[in-house]
Design brief:
Layout: H1 4-14, E1 27-28, H2 39-54, H3 60-78, E2 85-88, H4 91-101, E3 109-113, H5 122-125, E4 133-137, H6 146-152, E5 157-163, H7 175-185, E6 188-192, H8 204-207, E7 211-215, E8 227-231, H9 279-295, H10 297-317, E9 322-323, E10 335-339, H11 343-352, E11 355-356, E12 358-360, E13 363-367, H12 374-386
Parallel strand pairs: 1-11, 3-4, 3-5, 5-6, 6-7
Antiparallel strand pairs: 2-8, 7-8, 9-10, 10-13, 12-13
Helix pairs in contact: 2-9, 3-9, 10-12
Length: 387
């Protein structure tokens, strides 16, 4: 259980989220779709847009400082080096760096799970026109199956691209075991991190991930169009740059002398960034990451799992409900899915009670985050009991 001091921090942070105010009557369990904004993140946006009315001063220095902060905190969230992290616009940004940057050739194979979210499918499917093959690994009971993965590997297999956490049932893949297999077989390991980044602990170097990408509009509680990516340092020089920007090189914030066309690309993940940057979203993402970092990802994970434990106890005690998520500790995440007879009707009743969640693949998906508390879970259980 979290210490009293940490619990009090969560109570204070809850007040940062207008979605929790009683007068609205909303109970929000839908971060796996879109996370709500905090007051501090909204303030960052407002301050930038107020500045944009008059544009009466330079703001580049502040924005680039925020970008440095994003890279630094992002590296902390995922156990990486700062020079391995870059600002991205969404999960697909980093996945496209992988798909179009890895040194693949005609006849090579890419392996994907047969239950991936489409953002981790179409960048790879697009490679078919270059003669690269895509094979889908059959899942088992809705979960990624490592044995089927091993069976699917051939001498032509060059990439496995997989979700950190599966979007519809919250299954947290055993990335350590999978990463070890990839390293042993000489397979590039790419991870779609959006359903776990900022809310579940992870370490790039221990897991031996090559490329990792995560949008920030879900669990990192930032606006759409924000995120970050990771490219392993030793791999960066082997990545073909799928695109390049004038900000892929270092101007030292000197934008008064721009007739230089021979500057070297950054010796870091910044070479894969794309500018000019959307400053409003840069400031917003930085504030959102500061808020998460003030609590700590490991504390958030524990907080969320403890809340879900109370829901799990209820669901187990009621034969109407069937839990579709794994309850094995290493496979648990901050997402819990369950089903029942007339699941669509129950989902509508939850919606009518202003309990915001999702219906995915025939199951109700509950996504618990740092602003939720026991009273939210009690309200959910009360509505389920009457449904």
């Amino acid at each position: 259980m979290l210490s009293k001091e940490i619990q009090n921090k969560f109570k204070a942070v809850r007040k940062q989220f207008p979605v929790t105010r009683k007068k609205k009557g909303i109970t929000y369990f839908n971060c796996a779709s879109t996370g709500p904004l905090s007051l501090s993140t909204r303030k960052a946006l407002d301050e930038y847009y107020d500045y944009s009315f008059y544009v009466d001063r330079g703001i580049d220095h502040d924005a680039f400082a925020a970008l440095d902060g994003i890279r630094k905190i992002g590296a902390k969230f995922i156990g990486a080096r700062i020079d391995e992290v870059g600002f991205g616009f969404h999960t697909g940004y980093g996945l496209n760096i992988a798909a179009f940057g890895l040194p693949l050739k005609p006849g090579d194979e890419v392996l994907l799970s047969d239950n991936e979210f489409p953002s981790n499918v179409y960048p790879w499917v697009a490679l078919k026109q270059r003669g690269i093959k895509v094979k889908f690994i059959k899942s088992k009971n809705g979960f990624f199956d490592i044995d089927n993965f091993v069976k699917a590997i051939s001498r032509k297999t060059k990439v496995l691209s997989l979700s950190f956490v599966q979007f519809f049932n919250g299954y947290k893949n055993d990335l350590s075991k999978i990463g070890a297999i990839c390293k042993d077989r000489g397979i590039y390991f790419v991870v779609d991190g959006i359903q776990g980044c900022g809310v579940e602990t992870i370490n790039m170097h221990k897991i031996q991930i090559d490329i990792f990408s995560s949008g920030a509009q879900k669990w990192m509680l930032s606006p759409l169009g924000t995120g970050f990516f990771y490219v392993r340092k030793e791999l960066q020089n082997n990545i073909r740059m799928p695109f390049a920007s004038w900000l892929s090189v270092d101007w030292g914030l000197n934008f008064t002398d721009l007739f230089h066309y021979d500057l070297p690309f950054f010796d870091s993940a910044r070479r894969f960034e794309f500018g000019t940057y959307p400053y409003a979203h840069v400031f917003a993402l930085y504030q959102s990451m500061l808020l998460i970092d003030s609590l700590g990802v490991s504390n958030i994970q524990k907080h969320n799992h403890e809340l879900l434990d109370k829901l799990i106890d209820y669901l187990k005690s009621n034969s109407r409900f069937e839990i579709k998520s794994s309850l094995i500790n290493k496979h648990r995440s901050s997402i819990l899915s369950f089903t029942c007879p007339e699941v669509k009707k129950v989902y509508r009743q939850l919606s009518n009670a202003k309990i915001i969640c999702s219906l995915r693949e025939g199951a109700i998906r509950i996504a618990v985050h740092l602003y939720n508390n026991e009273s939210d879970i009690k309200k959910l259980i009360t509505v389920l009991d009457k449904s």
